[in-house]
Amino acid sequence: MIQISKEILIQDRISLKEGHGGLRFLELRWNGAEAHIYLHGAHILHYQPAEQQPVLWHSEASWFETDKPIRGGIPICWPWFGPHPNDSDQPAHGFARLTEWEPISNSVTDEATCVTLQLPASSCPQRISLQLTLELSDKLLVSLTTANNSGSDFNYSEALHSYFFIQNIHAVKVSGLEGQYYIDKLSHDLSPQKQKGPIEFSAETDRIYINTTHSTTIVDEVFKRSIHISKENSLSTVVWNPWIDKSIRMPDFGTSEFLNMLCVETANCGPNAVALASGETHKMNLQISARNH
Known about the structure:
- The chain is built from one helix and 22 strands.
- It is an all-beta fold.
């Protein structure tokens, strides 16, 4: 078990608590806003702006076990996205989300509450480091930083696999990707297709929008809220909802929970995987803000 330095904890701003399944998490507070980051996977499970409903969703059927991923919130996919390219015995979406991370620094000011966690060196490829920084203010800023000191190129994929809480998937649209190209992972034809208009949902959806740095907005007409998602150093955006049949097949996902969640993921995957030269660092940023209509 990772030991937490007392210097990481600051009264009324950063607290260590026991969560689901006995897993530990850091609770961050700032001017009425709140965020929870589990040490298991450096997994951000909860984000709630002041005087609003939660922005992130997680499944009531989720496992909270040390050898399994958490379903919902913001899992970290690293150093591969989806199945391992060569070894089917490896865990989907990499090992970062299955490992206990170590909090290494914090920052508390009038403007924000911030904490940084690091994947233990024993879990990383040799001389590769991975850190996640969470900054809570009137918005949520998440940074995933990979540093390569290995002496050779390091090729990897990554995603901040964000699950957003919505009122009804039938009444939700995603704007910002109009005219962008995507790969439909549910189609036999994997050639890029062009998005026409905002994204709407009436069936299982699993798309990788490629070569795009565009911000997106989830417009929830029933909830009367918009969630704005902006990003930096990310060329892929993944949009996913499992719908009915896949929900039934997933043991850590409630049968009807697809109605209340939508993944819009900040990523570098597929044709946008990262080739990181020795001595270089890559920092992918995600910023989330919510506004009631």
